[in-house]
Design a protein that fits this description.
Layout: E1 6-10, H1 14-25, E2 29-33, H2 37-56, H3 62-71, E3 72-75, E4 86-89, H4 95-108, E5 114-117, H5 124-128, E6 137-141, E7 151-156, H6 162-174, E8 178-183, H7 190-206, H8 212-223, H9 229-236, H10 238-252, H11 261-268, E9 281-282, E10 289-290, H12 292-295
Parallel strand pairs: 1-2, 1-4, 2-3, 4-5, 5-6, 7-8
Antiparallel strand pairs: 6-7, 9-10
Helix pairs in contact: 1-2, 1-3, 7-9
The protein binds acetoacetyl-coenzyme A (CAA).
Acetoacetyl-coenzyme A is lined by residues 50, 53-54, 57, 120, 143-145, 147-149, 191, 226-227, 232, 236.
């Protein structure tokens, strides 16, 4: 099996930058590619901040941070990924966009390069089929915040060869993660279970079951979750969750994957969660306060 030494990451948003940081910290030469310098700058800033936090908390040596930074480069040029041993794609959940990139890379990269998608909900088979290497295609699904969350879902589609799967699985371990095997069905394991739960929490708020704060507090204190569901929705990004739910609803046609009107309205109104400062909570103040008044959710919030 050819060894993985150089990693390419497509997309330098929340997930892509986390994946690039993780790969560089684990010792891989890593190239992160996005379409514009401002996006790359934002990604680079997030990585430096996260690495700094890990050093501050004593979880990473300063020398390891410097070595990781040294292994990382940023580019807008797709051609810079041509000699990577594995390319992990973490761009917007848009099949057409993803397949445009995969087709270009298919021309640039040698046949043995592994193509891996971090998609949360799209079918791996639909991307593999757009390339001339469906046997070298696999899903590698990471969790936010990538540097901290230990799990990677390694997704085998019908065309994935055993060698590719084994390499991707071993690579996830080499990144310091815990891999699990998932089949290529929309949502894999985690989102299949998590997305209906998150949508139900938004539905419960919409129906006046409890306040934002109490819904979150209940699941944190009653079930030991590190974050309540509305805080987690804000953390993942409301636009992202709505997009994932659309894809899953389209695939399964089950009401539990349909985003409730409140959530859809919030996204249309520009409430995208923590990344733009407003969601179920308003992050323009510290600590964040619930947005119940702005959202018109019926139970009066107490905090
Ligand atoms: N980089 C480095 N360090 C970070 C960090 C980052 N990006 N984010 C947080 N930290 C560190 C903090 O500095 C802090 O360190 P100490 O414990 O040493 O003080 C630690 O992590 C905890 O952070 P906080 O005190 O700020 O907050 P917290 O205790 O709530 O922990 C959390 C943060 C790890 C994110 C935790 O709340 C958590 O596990 N939340 C659930 C996240 C989750 O469910 N993710 C999956 C989302 S689903 C998904 O991603 C897939 C999809 O397809 C939608």
């Amino acid at each position: 099996m050819p060894e993985i030494k150089k990693v390419g990451v497509l997309g330098c948003g929340l997930m892509g930058s986390g994946i690039a940081q993780t790969a560089a910290t684990a010792g891989f030469t890593t190239v992160a590619r996005d379409v514009g310098a401002p996006l790359l700058e934002k990604g680079r800033g997030g990585i430096l901040k996260s690495l700094g936090r890990l050093v501050e908390k004593g979880k990473l040596e300063a020398s390891a941070r410097d070595a990781a930074s040294g292994r990382l480069s940023f580019t807008t040029d797709l051609d810079a990924l041509r000699d990577c041993d594995i390319i992990i794609e973490a761009v917007t959940e848009d099949l057409e966009l993803k397949n445009r990139l995969w087709k270009e890379l298919d021309q640039l990269c040698p046949g043995q390069t592994i193509f891996a998608s971090n998609t949360s909900s799209l079918t791996i088979a639909a991307m593999a089929a757009a390339t001339s290497r469906p046997d070298r295609f696999v899903g590698l699904h990471f969790f936010n915040p990538v540097p901290l969350m230990p799990l990677v879902e390694v997704v085998r589609t019908v065309t994935t060869s055993q060698e590719t799967f084994d390499q991707a699985y071993a690579f996830a371990r080499d990144l310091g993660k815990e891999p699990v095997t998932a089949t290529d069905s929309p949502g894999f394991i985690v989102n299949l279970l998590l997305v209906p739960y998150l949508l139900d929490a938004a539905r419960a708020l919409e129906h006046g079951v409890a306040t934002t704060v109490d819904l979150d507090r209940a699941m944190q204190l009653g079930c030991g979750h590190p974050m309540g569901p509305l805080t987690l929705l804000d953390y993942i990004g409301l636009d992202t969750v709505v997009r994932i739910s659309e894809i899953m609803f389209d695939a399964y046609r089950e009401p539990r994957y349909a985003a409730p009107p409140l959530l859809q309205r919030m996204v249309v109104a520009g409430f995208h969660g923590r990344k733009n400062g407003k969601g179920f909570y308003d992050y323009s103040v510290d600590p964040a306060v619930p947005s119940d008044l702005a959202l018109g959710t019926s139970v009066k919030s107490e905090r």
